[in-house]
Amino acid sequence: MWKPDERRTFLFLLIFTVLKAQQSNDAQEGHSGHQCDCMEYWECISAGGKPYSYCDYSNKVCCFIDQNAKTVGILPRRGKSTSCGQKGVDNKKDGFSEPGEWAWHAAILEKPRDLYVCGASLVDEYWVMTAAHCVDDFVDSQSLKVRLGEYDVLRSSEPQKHEEFQVSRVIIHPGFDNTSLLHDIALLRLSSPAKRRSHINTVCMPGNELTEKVLAASKCVVTGWGKRNERSNHSVVLKEIIVPVWKNNDCEGSMKLQFGPNYRLPSSVVCAGTTGRDACDGDGGGPLVCEKNNHWYQIGIVSFGIGCGRPNVPGVYTRVHSYKQWIHDVVLNS
């Protein structure tokens, strides 16, 4: 029978020995702290890598990725920096985007007439992420397809040609409630892998460092083909709108004025927008992204709103960070 202190000592020595052996093996293979790649833990294991240690004081890990590792998605390779969340072109204007700028924005279409269903975002070479309310009526994935690299929906010929993918699976979060729109998130698996192009790329997943305080000071943008306001037509080119992110307490106060004093804002949502700057009809399922160190991280999925751009009424988005584990499990196990 192990005594408590003896068992603790044994486990400590065992873990220490394993880590030392791992470090020794890595050293023999030519790895060092300067040669590994710093990235999110989720990206590391999805790329077939091995988390080794934390990078300085950040939440990122030093990841070793074998050159022969089989990747799950369009993720960093050994010797290359993280490339998710990098725009195709850098447009400084606010309003309409440039072709290829928001390279992860996807369109979900209903076959056979290619009817627009919702926006989405490319999070992995086989997966796009959207709102559950967009696809909960499409139990049969064969009726949907995904278009990447789209910009102008009226033009069949563009300098950067869009690419289309069949959908093999539609996975809706098991806790999704179509009435309250709680857990409004879904993943669609593509039947064939997407390839990185100048106008097609993955968005970055948010980490713990994107706190409420950091987001309040960040540049955040919502994109989509929706209306610019309640009275306008849907946009034919992908639009972009810079929106401020709200503190949850402030958002809950605003929503109580709309839904009554007993309303409670779920911690799994994030709010953004201001007068004249908001997601609108047609933007559902699309990404809300924020910039950090020249990379764009998706913090929200367009879920619902009350009108568009009304004073003191923000739009409500599914908070992506709240579902990172679920996303990770689906991508790795499906």
TrEMBL record:
<dbReference type="GO" id="GO:0006508">
    <property type="term" value="P:proteolysis"/>
</dbReference>
<dbReference type="InterPro" id="IPR050127">
    <property type="entry name" value="Serine_Proteases_S1"/>
</dbReference>
<keyword id="KW-1015">Disulfide bond</keyword>
<dbReference type="GO" id="GO:0005615">
    <property type="term" value="C:extracellular space"/>
</dbReference>
<dbReference type="InterPro" id="IPR001314">
    <property type="entry name" value="Peptidase_S1A"/>
</dbReference>
<dbReference type="InterPro" id="IPR001254">
    <property type="entry name" value="Trypsin_dom"/>
</dbReference>
<protein>
    <submittedName>
        <fullName>Serine protease 4</fullName>
    </submittedName>
</protein>
<dbReference type="Pfam" id="PF00089">
    <property type="entry name" value="Trypsin"/>
</dbReference>
<feature type="domain" description="Peptidase S1">
    <location>
        <begin position="82"/>
        <end position="332"/>
    </location>
</feature>
<keyword id="KW-0964">Secreted</keyword>
<dbReference type="InterPro" id="IPR043504">
    <property type="entry name" value="Peptidase_S1_PA_chymotrypsin"/>
</dbReference>
<feature type="signal peptide">
    <location>
        <begin position="1"/>
        <end position="21"/>
    </location>
</feature>
<keyword id="KW-0378">Hydrolase</keyword>
<dbReference type="InterPro" id="IPR018114">
    <property type="entry name" value="TRYPSIN_HIS"/>
</dbReference>
<dbReference type="GO" id="GO:0004252">
    <property type="term" value="F:serine-type endopeptidase activity"/>
</dbReference>
<keyword id="KW-0720">Serine protease</keyword>
<keyword id="KW-0732">Signal</keyword>
<dbReference type="InterPro" id="IPR009003">
    <property type="entry name" value="Peptidase_S1_PA"/>
</dbReference>
<keyword id="KW-0645">Protease</keyword>
